[in-house]
Fold this sequence. Notes:
Layout: E1 24-26, E2 31-33, E3 36-44, E4 47-49, E5 52-59, E6 64-66, E7 69-76, E8 79-81, E9 84-91, E10 96-98, E11 101-108, E12 113-115, E13 118-120, H1 125-128
Amino acid sequence: MFSKAKSDIKTPISKxxxxxxxxxxxxxxxVITGNAFSDGDIQIDGKIDGxxxxxxxxxxxxxxxxxxxxxDVIHVSGIINGEIxxxxxxxxxxxxxxxxxxxxxLSIEAGAYLQGLCKRTKIxxxxxxxxx
Length: 132
């Protein structure tokens, strides 16, 4: 009779609560034709014919990507045929990149192959990580 209505009861909402996103793994026997987008991490060990946009991207030794790659941090150990745009780019000794790299920070190990132009520029992640 004298109880409060449910709409009057306020529950605290945590503003610091983050959405947990599992990493996506493209295995060595998988081939994808099309674009890929993730708010989290992607690890590629197979082949992708299309553009990729991810916060953190790892291109494994056996991986091949034919398309544009965008993200925050990109580690390349495999083959990328296309443009890379990222805040931080790491090319390991087994990396083979044919295309331009737009970066804020770039690290290239001895033995890595790069055919393209490297341009240091301020990367705005908000513009990169907008869902298509």
